[in-house]
Amino acid sequence: MEQITVGQFGLVYNAFSFTFAAMAAGTLFFWLGRSQVGPAYKTAMTITGLVTAIAAYHYFRIFESWTDAYDVKNGVITATGYAFNDAYRYVDWLLTVPLLLIELVLVMRLSQKETVSKATSLGFAAALMIILGYPGEIATDNSTRALWGTLSTIPFAYVVWQLFSGLGSAIERQPESARGLIKQARLLTFASWGFYPIVYMIPYTSLSGGAVATGIQVGYTIADVIAKVGVGILVYMIAVRKSAAEYGEQGLAAVPAK
Question: In the chain, what are the helix, strand and coil shares in percent, each to the nearest 5?
Fold first, then answer.
């Protein structure tokens, strides 16, 4: 384990704690929010809540692993000998990153053929991106990290191309009240995903030792909150506006809960 200071330990500790709480709260909000949207958008809200539920579980495990790896007594921090298990984060991403794209596709309510095609291709590309990135994350030298990081950018580039080209015409067919929100969700997805490679490259900076470990862990947690809770809130708002446009306020209120 990298030698870190008490301050660095506390910063990561609080980041994990905050993110766990945010993901758990987001799960409750999104699942309870299913009652506020029409039947066509309930699946999207279910998946949105599932993303944060999976993340909440893994952040709890990450938090436990972090506290097991270090011991703080009388203002002095020492490694316990238990390795911090960063694999929890990649398992989380392998499950949630494809679902993040699928929830965005579902809330757009495309044709069945288009929905299946885009959800499958985007989900596969997202999973491949995570799989290719993991060997670099655990590599002990920067050249190996760079190799796998470069390979991971190939499916990432495909996802970005689909977000801005493949879904572009579909966005223009959306109700005007929701069109702007969908564009914001697309941009926020791109921005948050673009933050991950920046964090991935922290070992190449002038930082060293505990500062690198701290920067990576805090950076990834910030990106996760934005990508999962932030985008999830936008998906919820899109679903509410599209439901009102398609069912009407009174019609939506009359739709039985499922």
Answer: 80, 5, 15
Whether the CB-CB separation of 236 and 26 falls below 8 Å is answered with no
Structural domains of the chain, ranges and CATH numbers in brackets? 6-254 (1.20.1070.10)
Cα distances from 196 to residues 118, 128, 200, 237, 242, in angstroms, run 23, 15, 6, 25, 31
Encode pLDDT of 234-246 as tens digits.
999 999 999 988 8
Pairwise CA distance, residues 13 & 209, whole Å = 17
Residues 50, 99: Cα–Cα separation, whole Å: 8
Rounded to whole angstroms, the Cα distance separating 30 from 28 reads: 6
- Banded pLDDT at 252 (limits 50, 70, 90): low
Q: How many angstroms separate the first and last alpha carbons of the chain?
A: 49
The structure's pTM equals 0.90
pLDDT in tens, 226-236: 999 999 999 99
